[in-house]
Write a structure and sequence with these properties.
Elements (H helix, E strand, L loop, with lengths): L2 E5 L4 H17 L2 E8 L31 H13 L5 E6 L2 H11 L4 E3 L7 H5 L4 H7 L1
Parallel strand pairs: 1-2, 1-4, 2-3
Helix pairs in contact: 3-5
Length: 137
């Protein structure tokens, strides 16, 4: 097995997914990639019909790890290190399902591990079911 990709947001279901990914990586010797996604209200790559209010330079987002994800990535690192493994810890910004799918294709992941949690029917209808969307695609 080549690469195992684990989606991680530091919630209980994601911790179980990380444990499963760690176990599979140990069993198979696969490369472990753990991704945390910062969901953005606007997709930075989507077309927009608005611009800036002036001729000045546009402020750019910092390229480092966002503050919101520091504890999430830190906890993932602790879990992986406690298991005696190394993992590539990455983050992305955008739609979680889209970012996980994109990274899985980019890294040629042979396995994607996501936590399953119970969502309401309404959440599933409006697209809030990340594991379901990743599985469908």
């Amino acid at each position: 097995m080549g690469t195992i990709l684990v989606g991680y947001d530091d919630k209980e279901h994601a911790r179980h997914a990380l444990e499963r990914g760690i176990a599979e990586a140990k069993r198979t010797g696969a490369h472990l990639v753990v991704v945390s996604v910062l969901e953005l209200p606007l997709d930075p790559n989507a077309p927009r019909n608005f611009g800036t209010l002036g001729d000045g330079p546009v402020a750019k987002m910092p390229t480092g790890l966002p503050r919101e994800l520091e504890p999430v990535i830190g906890h993932a690192h602790e879990h992986v290190a406690a298991a005696g493994l190394r993992a590539e810890l990455v983050w992305a910004a955008g739609d979680p399902a889209e970012m996980i799918i994109e990274l899985a294709h980019e890294r040629k992941a042979s396995l994607v591990v996501l936590g399953q949690h119970h969502r309401s029917l309404f959440a599933a209808l409006v697209g809030a079911d990340v594991p379901g969307e990743v599985k469908r695609r």
